[in-house]
Amino acid sequence: MELQINDKTYQITSDAETPLLWVIRDELGMTGTKYGCGLAQCGACSVMVDGEVLRSCVMPVGAMAGRKVTTIEAVTADPVGQKVVDAWVRHQVPQCGYCQSGQVMAATALLKQVAQPSDEQIVGAMVNLCRCGTYNAIKAAMHELSGGTGAPAAAAAATTPAAPAAADGINKAAVAAAAVVGVGAVAAIQWSKTQKARAGKEQA
Ligand code: FES
Ligand code: FES
Question: Where is the 2Fe-2S ferredoxin-type domain positioned along the sequence (predicted)?
Fold first, then answer.
C-alpha cells in the first residue's frame, strides 16, 4: 500500500494489520517515534495524522490509506512545530528525552487546533507520560506558547493553582499505566522482537 509520511509517498510491504509505529520505525527507518507501552497508554509513539495527534502503536497501518502522517522527523517543517521545538529548548524540557518526541507532537497538534489554549485545554491535551517528570517544564513551555509570560518551570508550578491537581492526575495515570504495562509487557516486547527480527534492522 501507499503511505504518505512527512510529505513523501512510500510503497510499504508490511501487512495492513501491522501497527503504524513499526512501519515507521522498522520498515522506513524513522526512529524518532518511540515505543513505550504498546498499549496506547504512554504517548511515546505519538504522531500526527491529518493534523491530529494519534498513538501509532495501536493503529493498523491499513487505516492510514489516503491520510497524511507527520512524525517528529518533519515537525519543524511546520511553523507551529518549529515554535514548539524552540520553546522546548528555551525551557530545557527534555531530560532523558525518550518521551519528548511524543510530547512535541501532542503540543504541536494542540496548538495547530487552538492557537491560544487555556490551561484546562493544555492539561487535557498534554497527557503523555514522562518517567523523568518533566511536567512542570512542559507546562511552562506550553504557557509561553499559548501567549502567557513564559515563566520558568518552578514559578509556573508555584503560581498556577491547577498544577497540583494536574500533577496528581498525571501521577495516578502513570501508576495505572504501569500496572497495565506490567500485565502486557512480556507479550508486547515479544511481539516487538519478532517484528524487529523480521525487519532485520537494529533499533535506535
Ligand atoms: S507506545 Fe504507544 S502509547 Fe505507549
Ligand atoms: S524526558 Fe525522560 S521520559 Fe520524559
Answer: 1-75
Query: For the chain, what percent of residues have pLDDT higher than 70?
Result: 73
Count the residues in the chain: 204
Per-residue model confidence as pLDDT tens digits over 84-136? 999 999 999 999 999 999 999 999 999 999 999 999 999 999 999 999 999 99
Looking at the structure of the chain, the number of domains it has is 1
- Looking at all shown ligands, the one closest to residue 20's CA atom is 1
pLDDT at 39 over 70: yes
How far is the centre of ligand 1, averaged over its atoms, from the C-alpha of 148 (Å)? 30
- The range of the structural domain enclosing residue 121 comes to 2-197
Residue 95 alpha carbon, nearest atom of ligand 2: 1
| Cβ pair 31, 204 in contact under 8 A | yes
pTM of the predicted structure, to 2 decimals: 0.76
Residue 7 Cα, ligand 1 centroid: separation in angstroms? 24
Q: How far apart are CA 151 and CA 143, in angstroms?
A: 8
What are the CA-CA distances from residue 102 to residues 106, 147, 158, 160 (Å)? 6, 22, 26, 24
From ligand 1's centre to the CA of 151, what distance in Å? 30
Q: Is residue 65 part of a domain?
A: yes
* CATH (domain of 79): 3.10.20.30
Return the C-alpha cell found at 180. 497495565
